[in-house]
Design brief:
mainly alpha
Amino acid sequence: MSATAIAVRRPRSGRRIAAKTVLYVVLGVLALAIVLPLLWMLLTSFKTDADAIRNPYSPPSPVSLDAYRTLASGQQPILLWLWNSLAAATVQTVLILVTASMGAYALARMEFAGKKIIFGLIISTLLVPPVVFLIPNYLIVQNLGWLDTILAITVPGAAGAFGIFFLRQFFVGLPVEIEEAARIDGAGDIRIFLQVVLPLARPALATLAVLSFLNNWNDFLWPVYVLLSPEHMTLQPGLSMLQGAYRTHFAIVMAAAVIASVPVLVLFGIAQRQIVDSVTGAAVKG
């Protein structure tokens, strides 16, 4: 190799190493920005109230389980709120997967009059702030007699436009030849949808399931309006009840937040591989 080629190659290698170094530094800073608040929340949950106020940014000294004992004692029905949130998020996620997959497949593969107009109307709802639908949805729920029930926090959001748009884009990217081969073998539209399309769409369905679960799990405003009794409350509005007007028990609030984050972390751990497959699959198609 000539000296000129070596001289050209060295600057390129140096620039590549510098670019990787900058990338790793940026990723490290972003990771710290995500991890440090979670670590602070966890450490605060093991403090006493006095220690949490006196030394908010230091490790617990001494380590105390008083906050978790208080939550377990039943003074605040956090376990009931946790169960209500799990039930509501799970039910709504299942409903979204059912409605969104069927609607998305019809818009992606079937031909019928006004399909583009219907799809455009569905997408246009994504541009409307969700708070605009607050009063109409409340009136509908009230007239149906669903106030203070699990139906009020699961059914209204079960036909969201995002799920239809997300799955339709995935279905459009699937090879039509696979469905045509199944149709030649005698399979009908329903069988093709259930036994061919849905198994291929597992990464997209898992991603949508996680997003839908998180959306319901973190919802605060809508449950405040439609859930009237404390025993029917979900976790997010329930956590706000732990903060008093004149005093807040920070250790108890942080312990409740730790408990609230466990189901989300477990769900992401289970669906992590499917989510990665969905992202990498979209990158390969792109």
